[in-house]
Amino acid sequence: MRRTLHYDAVVVGAGVAGLTAAARLAESGARVCVLAKGVGSTHLAPGTVDVLGYEPDGSEPPRRVDSPARALPAFVAERTDHPYALLGVDSIRPALEWFAERIEHGPQQGYRYLGEMERNHLLPTAVGAARPSALVPETMAAGDLRGTGPICVVGLHPLRDLWASLCAANIVRLGVEARAVEVGLDVDRPDENALGLARRFEDPGFRRTFADRLAPQLRDDERVALPAVLGVRDPHGVWSELETWLGRPVFEIPTVPPSVPGMRVSDALRAALRAAGGRLVVGAEVGGAERDGERVTALQAHTAGRDTTYAARWVVLATGGFNSGALALGSDWVVRETVLGLPVRGAPAPGARRFVPEYFGEQPMSRVGVAVDPNQRAEGLENVIVAGAALPGAEPWREGSGEGIAITSGHRAAELVRAEEGLGAAV
Amino acid sequence: MTEVLHELLRGSLDHCVKCTICETACPFSNATPLFPGPKYAGPQAERYRVEDEPSVEWSVDYCSGCGICTQVCPQGVKIAELNAQARHKRKQESGVPLRDRLIARPTVLGRLGTPVAPLANATLRSRPFRAAVERAFGVHRDAPVPRFAGRTFRSFARRHSSPPASRRVVYFHGCGTEYYEPDVGEKTVAVLEHNGFQVEIPKQGCCGLPLQSNGLFDDARKYVLRLARALAPQARDGALIVGNATSCTLMLKREAREILGLADDPELKLVSERTYDVCELLLELHDRGELKTHMQPVNEVVAYHAPCQQQGHWIGKPALELLDLVPGLEVRELDARCCGIAGTYGLKREKYDIAMATGADLFRQIGASQAGSVACDSETCRWQIEHATNKPSAHPIELLHRAYGLPPAGADSKRSTLRGVMTRNVERVRNRART
């Protein structure tokens, strides 16, 4: 027998864009399957939803955005090739609302995101820099640097991923009163990471001991900053209990990967997909496609022993950019889309400058993405819709726009398929 | 050939960006500091591993070989495969204990135990005996060991003739079915026949997976090639090979070729390409509208755990979708990673506690799920789950068998008096709790 499975839509990639598109489609009644080479970049991202944090305008550092809602119309007017210009500023808000609802009704009971497009939060990073972000987990919101109260940054021994004194010293340089303390935890391994601690914090006895050790070191009006380790499955429970016990605001600061808040996002979106009847296949790398004229009719996925064919009416390509290997730059300086061999757009012209020496500078090569039409369709193909970091024209790490683009483009990809297929509204 | 393969695996190291995603998913490093995690033991330690020079670190012995790291890696690094090879090298240097040589040979144990099943079962449940075995051999006294069925699946297969049908499959039953759970094999055959397959059951042996995971690569190669020779003739005639032992079908599909360096063996390749996990096959049948969906209600709540090696097929969780077809059956998907047993890992004295700690999250979820039983595709995982939770565990195919209302398995054995899968398993768990 021929090894083919049939779906209304196959989504390639299990990051925020792919899971958003897939869950939204499944909620509309479509038969959906997500194919992913591995776990998506959720586990590496801080778990905040950055919509627009900066307007890179050549100045260093780039101009910070206080209100994405106010800044976006001019931002896209000046950058007609930017994903937000393509997606339309109006499609951002409903997508973010959809996302926030999925978290709120997700598997982490009570856990929710706070904020809106009107005003960015300004949260401290693990090195004490200020980072603007539109939607943030409730467990981070009290960290807003414009909020009241000095900050006590708590280092957790033996976690090496938040150096409290460095973080506090840099927060002080931002004009906010801060100091560092260190609390030793009863942990039997010297290499414990954030995830290991997050699992331990889900044990009430463990966090009680921690709170008892921390409480005497705190001053009256201080808020407490902790590395983001307050539980994977029940962050609301862990965080709210610590706030009660310590009698003051407590907030998480995202650390280097593995990112516990990012894993919560992945868990919640996967749960939404599963609840809507969608399928998730991790480990199956897509390595080719069958085409019929301007349509992709099926994808070939590398599965154990042989390939499996996934036939689909629609393909949502949410494979990411260079970081995930979805785009590759050859020694011939040609950028290739590695999954389906699609045409790309936005690469520097031959002879033009490709890179600048500053790592976080404006890298001409970084705007490359899959060439799409206004409906996110890959150039020359009727039924392949592109979402997330595979889209051209953005510099998410300079703009603070990664999750905003991922959620909005994933959500809109689902809307486009829904409209074409005449599917019902999402439940 | 082996060297070429090893270089290909090593080449994948260059893709490691140290993102730690494998560390978030590793069931074992999260339970013991003795295994620092797939990234440390894999891409990082591999830089210090030089051919013809002694192994430089030993933590890979505490890797169970479950393969989850490779599955979740977004960059395609063959972490588990490299660590399996490092473990093999390490074991070659240090020597493999008698215990590991024994527990890695289910066919030997099965042949010894089957004729004297009542005695063997009683002995294996005797506390003093187990304490002595633990001291002498290092098999943990509390580790779950299955019950010999007292009859082999082969004895059924010899007598059984499958009705002619247009579709033909070869049934690969594995050692667990052969010696401990022949009724699961009978039900698998019945479900396949019910769906229009003619089932052939050639004489067959062990796939070599336990040998491989214990670092006994040479023996593992012999076993898996012998099995491939047994299955290849039918595969060459166009038949598909289908198995219910999900780790053993994965061995045939991928692990033997990637880990043992047998990628180019023509017969193994043929078998590998045509091997199916039984739920995978049935779901494909359903996708084409050819699976029988007339079923009796099963008004129960069942939790489903996808074993690590089932996940290594890279096919998602087809059992979930099949169980969703059963009217009345409420399926709770568990998202904990691993039960900890990893075939023979959790049997070992020095690793039993680690295995139980690894499975703790799963056991807690099972307890919280309010499910009466647990469906799971791998037999050693089922035994571990029953051991740790006192809840009965069955292969998903057993639930389908029941929903189809097919005649009970083991018609010629005493077990035929028992009503259903769960009844039988409940007894088994109760017996264990009593001993």
Largest interface in this structure? A-B, 44 and 43 residues
How far apart lie the N and C ends of chain B? 50 Å
Indicate the CATH architecture of the domain at 290-434 in chain B: 3-Layer(aba) Sandwich
Major sheet of chain A, described briefly?
7 strands, mixed
Give the strand line-up of the largest sheet of chain B.
Answer: 2-1-3-4
Low-confidence region ranges of chain B: 413-421
Q: Pairing-aware structural class of the strands and helices of chain A?
A: alpha/beta
- Radius of gyration of chain B from CA coordinates: 21 Å
What overall geometry of chain B do the principal axes of the alpha carbons give? globular
Radius of gyration of chain A: 22 Å
Number of strand elements of chain A: 21
The main sheet of chain B comes to:
4 strands, parallel
What quaternary form is this? heterodimer
Quote the average pLDDT of chain B. 92
Fold and architecture overview:
The complex is a heterodimer of chains A (427) and B (435). Helix content of chain A is 30%, strand content 23%. Chain A is α/β, with parallel strands linked by helices and 427 residues long. In chain A, helix 8 (204-214) packs parallel to helix 9 (235-246). The longest helix of chain A is centred in the C-terminal third of the chain and has 20 residues, at 402-421. In chain A, 52% of the residues are buried. Chain B has 435 residues and is α/β, with parallel strands linked by helices. Helix content of chain B is 51%, strand content 7%. Chain B has helices spanning 2-11, 21-25, 38-44, 68-72, 79-94, 98-103, 106-113, 117-124, 127-137, 153-159, 174-180, 182-194, 209-213, 217-236, 246-259, 266-274, 278-287, 308-311, 318-323, 352-368, 379-389, 396-403, 421-434; strands at 167-172, 197-200, 240-243, 275-277, 301-305, 330-333, 373-376, 393-394. In chain B, helix 7 packs parallel to helix 11 (174-180) and helix 14 (217-236) crosses helix 16. Chain B is globular. Classes of the chains: A alpha/beta (427), B alpha/beta (435). Chain A binds chain B through residues 1, 3-6, 33, 36-41, 43-44, 188-191, 193, 195-196, 199, 257-258, 263, 267, 274, 279-285, 301-306, 308, 323-325, and chain B through 15, 17, 19-21, 23-25, 30, 33, 36-37, 40, 70-76, 167, 240, 250, 252-254, 272-273, 275, 283-285, 287-288, 311-316, 321, 333, 335.
